[in-house]
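Same chain as my last thread, 164 residues:
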Amino acid sequence: MFMNKHMSTTTTTPSTTTDASRKAIISKILVAIDGSDASMDAADYTIPISKEYNAELYALHVIRADVDLFGPHETSEFMTRMRNEGEKYLNKVKLNANEKNIQIKTEIISSINIAGGIVDYAEENNIDLIVIGTRGSSGFKKLLLGSVASHVVTYAHCPVMVVK
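reply #2:
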């Protein structure tokens, strides 16, 4: 039998991480909701994950701030309509979570940049995992990954799960 002098055997030992310690890593999960089918699918996917990890669940809707020469302002009729629409989306997610006995915190914020609003909110609230749909309400169906999802993946401080 021929043996190569440079041949070596590597032995790997199984990880000693227990299920309990792995689950403890994810204690806060954020799902971004914009009302699109992809974001609602992301919410449906997130609810059982939060239950399995016994993690706090946050649902966030970001409204693009109404900006003029004087800066952002939230009192315009447009912003009021957008806030009401966001509440409808978040109420659907909240109802679904409550049916599965999951506590959920919902919030609407405004930001001049949607992805930046999601990333900043996640950092400020010490989120361990962000879940987002592949494409949002902008409707660019040919894009593999929407621009908001792409930016969140790029700039988030924590892992991001993109749900298709």
